[in-house]
Amino acid sequence: MSSNPSINLFTWLTANGIKVSITLEELSIPYQVTEVEISTNAQKEPWFIKINPNGRIPAILDDGQRVFESGAILLYLADKYDSEGKISYQFGTSEYYEQLSWIMFQVGGVGPMQGQANHFRLMAGEYSQYAIDRYMAETRRLYSVLNERLGASPWLAGNKYTIADICNYGWVRYGPIALGIDLDDFPHLKRWHDAIHGRTAVQRGLNVPRVVPDEQLRERYRLMEEKTTALQS
Ligand SMILES: N[C@@H](CCC(=O)N[C@@H](CS)C(=O)NCC(=O)O)C(=O)O
User: How high is the pLDDT of residue 5?
Assistant: First the structure.
């Protein structure tokens, strides 16, 4: 570790939130957690807007330095606290740009598309089969891209598990739980998911800010889907 961290993580138990807690756990960085309960819109309160002007979790404060957007946070943590390259590649190397590409692929692709699939399947105030089909298909297409890559490479950026894997895992974890996606349809992605899921630091990161068993999460999403489906005319 290159300097003394004094990190406060502002988060909630979501696909974007766990990326940061897992990274902090992988790097054994001490941190405090502030729960930002998005179901009560705490992320839109003025105190939090000062930390993330976009009013979304996750965000961190590190000794006064704010960093928001999960991709930026992972890159910041790697730059500042992973000089040994435990879970990141060194700036300027070919693998670094591969790592950066898969991070951008997640924040610009998997996150927004799967987020819309979540919205229309689980949260929308009206039922739209068109929107559900469109975003589910796009999510599955993006999973196929990951699957293809992982058929050719052990990890997304190369031979090492990195923040690019953590970034994408955050969302792939929620595919089966929230959207009923069967990872058996994507065998290389499943192999990769299971390897990441089995890591001790990942298990610790998944319990931030609260422990919620997978069964409880599945049931929560099942009830949400039931409610949205009932709006079908
Ligand atoms: N691009 C952002 C997305 C952040 C995001 O959408 N966070 C969600 C939780 S996963 C959130 O705060 N939602 C509440 C809201 O939209 O107000 C990132 O990668 O950090």
Answer: 73
